[in-house]
Amino acid sequence: MLALTWDGTRSRVVADAPVPEACDPTSAVVRVRLAGICSTDLQIIAGYMGFRGVLGHEFVGEVTAGPEAWVGRRVVGEINFACGRCPTCLAGRRRHCPSRSVMGILAADGAFAEYVRLPIENLHHVPDGLRDEEAVFVEPLAAAVEASLQTAAFAGGRTIVLGAGKLGLLVGQVMAARGDDVTVACRDRAACVQVEARVGLCAAAVEDVRRGCDLVIEATGTAEGLSLAMDLVRPLGGIVLKSTIAERHALDLAPLVINEVTLIGSRCGPFGPALASLVEHGVRVTPLIDAVLPLRDGAEALRRAAVRGTKKILLQPGA
Amino acid sequence: MLALTWDGTRSRVVADAPVPEACDPTSAVVRVRLAGICSTDLQIIAGYMGFRGVLGHEFVGEVTAGPEAWVGRRVVGEINFACGRCPTCLAGRRRHCPSRSVMGILAADGAFAEYVRLPIENLHHVPDGLRDEEAVFVEPLAAAVEASLQTAAFAGGRTIVLGAGKLGLLVGQVMAARGDDVTVACRDRAACVQVEARVGLCAAAVEDVRRGCDLVIEATGTAEGLSLAMDLVRPLGGIVLKSTIAERHALDLAPLVINEVTLIGSRCGPFGPALASLVEHGVRVTPLIDAVLPLRDGAEALRRAAVRGTKKILLQPGA
Question: Is there a contact between B58 and B167 (Cβ–Cβ < 8 Å)?
Fold first, then answer.
């Protein structure tokens, strides 16, 4: 089959990748209909995680092999494959299983391929009303929902999102849907206009943002973003750290202590509430799509996705 | 009156400090019976806060002037003097009032003196059953209680305290009193024996501490302490940052995001629950006292308090 792979040195589309098989009753094979390129994919091809294999962890597809009840269903899939038996799993923290593999990220082939295998416990049925172009956003949207679940204490307050990238605009919409007064802080006024037009969130240039907010979502992935967040948040407020800052940075955390701020690390989230936020809360995802490209042009698609300011690039194996 | 002052260059005991007066019906003058030297006092004489005036913010005393209902009562006093009118105060966050003064720390004379003035709303009556040597710990104990109030979600779990100093041993006891399984991580086995003998908490050398705990209290005030805390805590666990790390440090916060850890800045706390933890929960404070010295020897007392490993030094104006 066709697959976009990373061998540690370069990414390339191969035509002879082996089609995965549903090797036991707990797994299923999914024919990928659409997959999304994420910043994590770009970090992997920059050497992050030391991953080798088929890339990709955002997808929507159709089950072609596995337990009868699943075959033929349109699905999305959670990306962390947990052991289910260790203390972490038994404590209900399966997404943090220490021996997990992660689709397209850690020791498991991903979804930039015609077919992908995953545990059936990771599958979620996609309601008929959702188009593929929407369902493919469930994985990043789940990460946005996680930020909301972790900050229930601040629901309904004034929230500033730093970073007008894909993740920032998803988190902003999820926070607005729960009733927060959300402002997306942008580099400049032109970017503000774009944000408002795309997803209907309020936006303001960084220098115009009013300080003393209840919650800041740090989605720039820079140390400067975290320092700015500490400057914008009120005493006893919260900061969600949504993206890893790859390098070590000189940080002064004294304001965190003096103002008793809570800093919350946030990564993956649950798919159920993410599907609900698409179906019930009208979170807008398709305005975040820049292009849909055939999987066979995957290597070029990765280059294009890496250009600063590019929104979501989707890959279509069937095209 | 006698007072231990800091003029920006040196600390010294002066004999001619003016006795404060209860200038309006909202303030009281307290004759100080006993006061405690805190790490913050040592930071101030190292230049922190740019404070000038009478040092000291941990005290127990007796009201000598002010509203009739208070005169003659034995009291302790909260150290943040709030304006009471700004949005922060009206939102119930008076300890974070942006125009506050702080006794002995910021724009208000402190308690290393024969008399100190403070707002009556900051006073708390000390029950007869508590000795002065216990009541003088209410301020640091309130800071320990704050860590407990901020981490209710982790109550009853496994908690590691990093730092066997005064604050660490207070927080450890408060956490144990609420049902946490507490271990104090110490430099070496000799320090462990001391911790167990002084306050009855379990202690272990850092290298023997079992990872994967629910909550870490970082009370070493070092960047290494925070890195160690990220290494010890389980996914979705919590870290309380209890002391400011004075300099900027190169920190890698990626583990915080990947493991979805919550980092909670923690400073001052409420006196009511702190008094209760002394009276009802048997938190042991007197084993933390190294010496009680006359206020007239205050400059020497500050030098002694700065020696690494020194526990609490108390000052007695009447001696």
Answer: no
Instruction: Encode pLDDT of B113-159 as tens digits.
Output: 999 999 999 999 999 999 999 999 999 999 999 999 999 999 999 99
CA R_g for chain A: 20
Cα B3–B5–B11 angle (5° rounding)? 125
Q: Please give the C-alpha separations between residue A158 and each of A201, A210, A215, A234, in angstroms, as whole numbers.
A: 13, 10, 7, 10
**Interhelix angle B166-177/B189-199, nearest 10 degrees:** 60
Distance CA B109, CA B95 (A): 17
Residue A246: pLDDT above 60?
A: no
Quote the pTM value: 0.94
Q: Can you tell me the distance from the alpha carbon of B305 to that of B289, in angstroms, rounded to the nearest whole number?
A: 11
List the alpha helices (DSSP H) in chain B.
39-44, 87-90, 132-135, 138-150, 166-177, 189-199, 223-232, 254-258, 271-279, 298-305
Return the residue of B nearest to A218 by Cα: B257
Checking phi first, is residue B15 left (phi over 0); if not, alpha (psi -120 to 50) or beta? alpha
A245 pLDDT band, cuts 50/70/90, is low
Name the nearest CA neighbour of A37 among A317, A312, A316, A319.
Answer: A312
pLDDT (tens digit, 9 = 90+) per residue, B23-45? 889 999 999 999 999 999 999 99
Q: Which two tokens stand for residue A165?
A: 């990238």
At residue A121, the 3 state secondary structure works out as helix
Model confidence at B245, pLDDT cuts 50, 70, 90, reads low
Contact residues, chain B, for A265 at CB < 8 Å: 253, 255-263
User: Residues of A near B (CB-CB distance < 8 A)?
Assistant: 87-88, 93, 96, 146, 150, 212, 226, 234-236, 241-267
For residue B61, the one-letter residue type is G
Strands A249-251 and A262-265: unpaired
Question: What percent of chain B lies above the pLDDT cut of 70?
Answer: 99
Please state which of the ranges B47-51, B97-101, B290-294 shows the lowest mean pLDDT. Answer: B47-51
Size of interface A-B (CB pairs under 8 A): 116
Q: Residue B140 carries which DSSP code? A: H
The pair of structure tokens assigned to A164 is 């007008």
